[in-house]
Design goal:
By secondary structure, the protein is an all-alpha fold. The protein is globular and about 65 Å long.
Length: 315
């Protein structure tokens, strides 16, 4: 279906995409998708509960972990209505305003996820390279200031191109590539001049996710340099083991982001299934894996989860 309508009209409707050619299997596909959402929500909610209720975890590292879990919950909540709506009820239509709102919330949480991974890298850098001054460098007030600053960055940076989406004219095929709204997907359907959105989005990505990843990389270069000065091989491995969870979380976030960006930019004419699979990996993989990684690799979190399970088993 093709239509032409001014972008400032709330009556313009986009069509979300499930799994093309597999519409008959949407109910079956929804089972693993719903299971992943449920596991991600329960896992991240458990991390939040543990950090909030365990006084021994009231430390900078776990505050940042709690913010990462909150961000993952936000990513899940921002996409679950449309994703499951398409798979369960074949609700494909979405008006302009709800679509733009979803774009804003989703991208703001994506930038926040990148920011929290950067903050956690900084935490590991200070803890390993300057352990004696760690409590005085990362005080509670400074941790709050870091979280608020990075949060405001994510919220404010996302506003200009999102507002611009409301004023674009959409006159091409109104079918989106995913079961949720994405900024790059919406500007692809516009016949207005989208140079501002494209250029601004590129600059924001470079200044936020790009700089976050660069700082994470530099942090680990300095961490490894510091670790190499430790004489004992056993102590080196012990120190590096405290970074494994964070490194895995970084890979779980940036690899899907890079994969989806490559698909959108260089594989536009490839099979729609590739776009759909990469899009779903992008929204589901980090929220699912982060609580699993930290539950398995972080001893304090693992003990707290075992303690909760044991208490429930005794009731």
């Amino acid at each position: 279906m093709s239509s032409t309508l001014d972008g400032n009209s709330s009556y313009f409707t986009f069509l979300l995409t499930g799994f093309p050619g597999l519409e008959w299997a949407h109910h079956w596909i929804s089972i693993p998708v719903f299971s992943v959402y449920l596991t991600a929500i329960l896992g991240n909610a458990t991390i939040l509960h543990i950090v909030r209720t365990d006084p021994s975890l009231h430390q900078p590292m776990y505050y940042f972990l709690a913010m990462l879990a909150s961000t993952d919950l936000g990513l899940c909540v921002s996409t679950i209505p449309t994703v499951l709506g398409v798979l369960w009820f074949d609700f494909r239509g979405i008006h302009l305003y709800p679509c733009v709102l979803q774009v804003y919330v989703f991208h703001a949480f994506s930038f926040m996820e990148s920011a929290m991974l950067f903050a956690m890298a900084y935490d590991r850098f200070v803890a390993i390279t300057n352990p004696l001054r760690y409590p005085t460098i990362l005080t509670s007030s400074r941790v709050v200031m870091i979280i608020l600053t990075l949060g405001l960055r994510s919220i404010i940076f996302t506003i200009p191109p999102i507002i611009r989406l409301l004023w674009l004219t959409y006159c091409r095929n109104n079918v989106l590539s995913h079961s949720y709204c994405l900024h790059q997907d919406m500007i692809r359907l516009s016949c207005s001049n989208t140079r501002f959105n494209s250029l601004y989005a590129l600059i924001v990505i470079l200044l936020s996710m790009g700089s976050d990843f660069l700082f994470i990389l530099l942090s680990y270069i300095m961490i490894f340099h510091s670790v190499l000065t430790i004489a004992s091989r056993r102590e080196q491995l012990k120190v590096l083991n405290t970074c494994v969870s964070h490194i895995l979380a970084v890979l779980c976030f940036y690899v899907p982001v890079l994969g989806l960006s490559i698909v959108h930019r260089f594989a536009r004419h490839s099979s729609p299934i590739i776009h759909i699979v990469m899009g779903n990996v992008y929204i589901l993989f980090p929220p699912l894996m982060n609580p699993l990684i930290y539950s398995i690799k972080t001893q304090q979190i693992r003990r707290a989860i075992i303690r909760i399970i044991s208490l429930k088993g005794c009731r």
